[in-house]
Amino acid sequence: MPSLQVDTAEGSRTPPLPQIHKLSQRLPPAVAEELAAAYRAGAHTTELAPRFRLSHGSVLRLLAEQGVTMRRQGLSEGDAQTAMRMYEAEGLSLSEIGTRFGVWPQTVRRALIKAGVKMRPKGGSRSRKHG
Asked: Reduced to 3 states, what is the DSSP secondary structure of residue 67?
């Protein structure tokens, strides 16, 4: 049996408002359009999720619903080389590198492994060079 809310103005009981789970019904169309425009202007999905307070999956779903053509996901060859230097020489974490490129840490990890980089143990120490 659903819980009831008390309408204090009249003292009567009314059923609670239903929670809307469907994303397209929760967000005004203008928000979805703004998100799509930001992505088309070059923003990464990993930036848009926190900006719009949505999960990454919701951002991807909204972009698809808006008919947005997705950019490649991953690192270019040049970015992978830069990521390799950041990881090996500068000691940055996968997460830190991912943040700089607007991709997930796992994307960075795949690119580094493909480039032949030996991965540090998870949570292992790293030596950063300070300049």
From this structure: coil
pLDDT 10s per residue in the chain (131 long)?
A: 444 444 455 555 666 655 555 676 678 889 999 999 999 998 888 889 899 998 888 888 899 989 998 886 678 888 899 999 999 999 999 999 988 887 889 999 999 999 999 999 887 545 555 44
Strands 5-7 and 12-14, how do they pair?
antiparallel
10: helix, coil or strand? Answer: coil
Whole-number Å distance between alpha carbons of 71 and 6: 50
Closest among 85, 43, 80 to 63, alpha carbons compared = 43
Two structure tokens written together for 1: 């049996």
45-52 vs 56-65: helix axis angle to the nearest 10? 100
Which SS3 state, helix, strand or coil, does residue 122 take?
coil
